[in-house]
Amino acid sequence: MIKVLFVCLGNICRSPMAEFLFKDMVNKKGLRDEFIIESAGTSNEEEGNPVHYRVTKKLAEVGIKTDGKHARQLEKYDYNKFDYIIAMEQRNIRDIYRIVGEDRENKVYRLLDFTSNPRDIADPWYTHNFDITYNDIIEGLECFIKILEKYR
Ligand code: 4NP
């Protein structure tokens, strides 16, 4: 079982988008039973709130539902619970360390560091551009799953 936690700031835009897109990718490869996939935010600002309507709308266009997901804050215990803790941007990584402590087992990564063009995923909360976020997340997830498949 591979346990993956996607992390952003609020857990209403980027990390739930990554969570549901990755679940879809894994389902389509017939690997659903091999993964536990969740998302969380470093801040408690949006705690309990549903996925941002622009994310829900974008995912609905490709037939993916976000029903039942509510924002939750990252907890210290998540570090033990997950194998991969995947941040959307460098700032998240700093905030993740603040919550979970040192990354003793090398579990914390930035999503687009799996690609040949390492960079942050821009926050659509500020850019209002959910298409760029979507494309960047897909690019990162495709590279991430390739790496997982290589080492299976
Ligand atoms: P996210 O976007 O980190 O991609 O979920 C944000 C959502 C909410 C806030 C910031 C970023 N906020 O400040 O409430």
Key terms:
152 residues; alpha/beta; Rossmann fold; four-stranded parallel beta sheet; 6 helices; 41% helix; globular; binds 4-nitrophenyl phosphate
Give an account of the 3D structure:
The protein is α/β, with parallel strands linked by helices and 152 residues long. The protein has one domain: Response regulator (Rossmann fold, 3-Layer(aba) Sandwich). Helices cover 41% and strands 14% of the residues. The chain is built from 6 helices and 4 strands, in the order βαβααβαβαα. The chain has a 4-stranded parallel sheet with strand order 2-1-3-4. Helix 1 crosses helix 6. The termini are close together. The structure holds 4-nitrophenyl phosphate (4NP). 4-nitrophenyl phosphate binds next to loops.
Tell me the CATH topology: Rossmann fold
Low-confidence stretches: none
Helix content class: 40-55%
The rounded Rg comes to: 14 Å
What is the domain total for the residues?
Answer: 1
Described by the principal axes of the CA atoms, the overall outline is globular
Main sheet, how many strands, which sense, barrel? 4 strands, parallel
Strand order of the largest sheet: 2-1-3-4
Structural class: alpha/beta
CATH superfamily: Response regulator
CATH class division = Alpha Beta
The counted number of beta strands is: 4
User: How far apart lie the N and C ends?
Assistant: 11 Å
Just name the CATH architecture.
Answer: 3-Layer(aba) Sandwich
* Total count of helical runs of at least 4 residues: 6
Question: Overall mean pLDDT score?
Answer: 97
Ligand names: 4-nitrophenyl phosphate
Question: How much β-strand is present in the residues?
Answer: 5-15%
Summarize the helix and strand pattern as letters.
Answer: EHEHHEHEHH
